[in-house]
């Protein structure tokens, strides 16, 4: 991210999916089944071990968890 007055700002986007799953009180197994994900794939999203986000997966997660991408993707 760039600020024309200060130069580069040190910020990153992270995936806050694990927390959202806990808040929604749903099991990871149900998320995997409903969103057509392998457990390893879901765990990689939960642990921020993905370098590229698949928008189809993000859409399925949002639909199942009744949320928006802003609830999953956070800026820090």
UniProtKB/TrEMBL annotation:
One Pfam family matching this protein: HTH_26
Domain spans labelled HTH cro/C1-type: 17-72
InterPro entries noted in UniProt: Cro/C1-type_HTH (IPR001387), Lambda_DNA-bd_dom_sf (IPR010982)
A GO molecular function held by the record: DNA binding
Source organism superkingdom: Bacteria
UniProt cross-references to PROSITE patterns, sorted A to Z: HTH_CROC1
The name this protein goes by in its record: HTH cro/C1-type domain-containing protein
Taxonomic path: Bacteria, Bacillati, Bacillota, Clostridia, Lachnospirales
